[in-house]
Amino acid sequence: MSIKRYGIEGGTGTGGQHLPFSSAVEAGGWLYVSGQTPMLHGEVVEGGIVEQSRLAIQNCLNIMKQAGYGLEHVVHVKVFLTDARYFQSFNKVFREVFGEHPPARVCCLADLVVDCKVEVDVTCYNAARVNG
């Protein structure tokens, strides 16, 4: 089984810092997308939980697409919220994105290392890519 790393050059975090990890890693048909926050070009996009949730999820989807995976391949999502009051609003965005076929999920409260409201990571599986 081979392991393929996406974005190994690392992304750009707040303040222009180099991020020393892959944006995703693929192994045996599985794709593990690193936690994504509502950032564009290394800066957190201001806004409420709905806007930040949409962008964090979209950042995951963009990485998945680059690796050749789609929504139909998502099997598990981890969500980190900074405030329990965001739970219902996040669920509305989650439902908009994943529709009638939602993946398994965990959602917890956490202090995040960047000043935002949400972080999301995604695990995907595509049997057609097992030997890829």
From TrEMBL:
Name of the protein this chain belongs to: Enamine/imine deaminase
Family: Belongs to the RutC family.
Organism: Sodalis glossinidius (strain morsitans)
GO molecular function: deaminase activity
Pfam families named in the record: Ribonuc_L-PSP
Transmembrane annotation, as ranges: none
InterPro entries, per database record: RutC-like_sf, YjgF/YER057c/UK114
Gene Ontology CC, one term: cytosol
